[in-house]
Amino acid sequence: MKQIITVDFYFHNLKHIPIIDVRSPGEFAKGHIPNANNLELFTDEERAVVGTAYKKESKERAFEIGYEFVKPKLNDFISKSIEIAPEKEVVIQCWRGGMRSNAFADHLIDNGFEKVYVIEKGYKAFRNYVLQFFEHPLNLKILSGYTGSGKTEILHSLEQKGQQIIDLEGLANHRGSAFGGIDLPPQPTTEQFQNNLFSVVQGLNPKLPIWVEDESKSIGKVIIPDAFYLKIRTMPVYFLDVPFQERTKHLVDTYASLTHDKLQEAISKITKRLGYDKAKFALEALESRDYYKVVEITLFYYDKAYLGGLQKREESTILKFEIPTVNPEETAKFLMSLTN
C-alpha cells in the first residue's frame, strides 16, 4: 500500500518509521530531515545530466536517460531499503514529492514492501514546515553574559539537573567568536543547522522553561532562523556579570590547549576590530605563550561588542546578577531557584 502524507502527518504519526531520502548526495548534504537515510536515485553527476536533458530536450528524453541510470540499481535499492526498514514499512521523500519519490515507492511496493508513505511536496514542504514551526510560542529563558562567563557549561549543568536546554553553539559546531571554530568539526550548512534545531525544539515542552544562550544572528557561518532569533532578542535575559579576571582564567583554560596556528589566524582576522597595535601585542603574547595577555587584549574588544548588543534590548527585560566565579554547577542551581 502506498499513501501520500503531509509533513505534519509524518511528525505527528510516523516519526518512529524509517525515512529514506532519494535525492542526490549533494542535495542531501545541503539539508535533510534529521534521521533520514540517503539512498539516492541519481548521483550528483547523473542528476545534472537528467536535468540538462529536461531543459534542453524534453521531459520524455530526461525520463529515458533517468531510467537508464536507475535500471542497474533496482535490485540494490531493494536490499538497501530492507537494511534501513526491515519491517518493510517506510517513508519516502524527495525534493518536491514528485517523480523520484513516487517511482521509488512503487518499486518498493512491487517488491514486497507492505506500507510505503510518500511525503507530499517532499523536502521543500519540510523546509516551509520548519520555518513556520519557529513562529510557535516558546518559554525561552535567555542566558546572557560577557564572553568567558561559562554560559555553555552552565547550560550543560542545567540539562544535567533536568532542565530543558537548547545548545545553539553545539548544534552549530562553533563557539560563536573569531576563535569559535578552532579544533571543532566542520559546521553544518545553515539549512541543516536549522533542521537540527527544529528537531531539538520539537522534542521539548514549549510551556516549560527552555534555557538558551544569547547569540548573534549568525554563529560562525550558520544563521539562526528569523522567528527564533526574534524570540531570543525580545524575551527576558538573565545577565550573569562575572568579574573580568575570572572570565580571563576560564578562557585561558578553554583556549590555551587549542592549535597555535589557528589561534594566530583568528587574531589576525579581527585585527581591524582590535586595532593594529592591540592585534600586534596579542600576536606577540601568543608567540611567547602568554595566554593571559592574549585573552585580556581580545576580551576588551568582545566585552565592548557584547555590551553594544545588550544595550539594544529593552532595559526592563535585562535581569542582572552578580556572579563571583565561573562555577557552572552553582550558577545552574541559582538560575533554577529563580524560575521555580
UniProtKB/TrEMBL annotation:
Biological processes annotated in GO: tRNA wobble uridine modification
Pfam family, one: Rhodanese
Domain Rhodanese: 13-135
Keywords: Selenium
Domain of life: Bacteria
InterPro entries tied to this protein: AAA_SelU, Rhodanese-like_dom, Rhodanese-like_dom_sf, SelU
Matching SMART domains: RHOD (SM00450)
One term of GO molecular function: tRNA 2-selenouridine synthase activity
Entries under PANTHER family matching the protein: TRNA 2-SELENOURIDINE SYNTHASE (PTHR30401:SF0)
Full protein name: tRNA 2-selenouridine synthase
Organism: Psychroflexus torquis (strain ATCC 700755 / CIP 106069 / ACAM 623)
Organism classification: Bacteria, Pseudomonadati, Bacteroidota, Flavobacteriia, Flavobacteriales
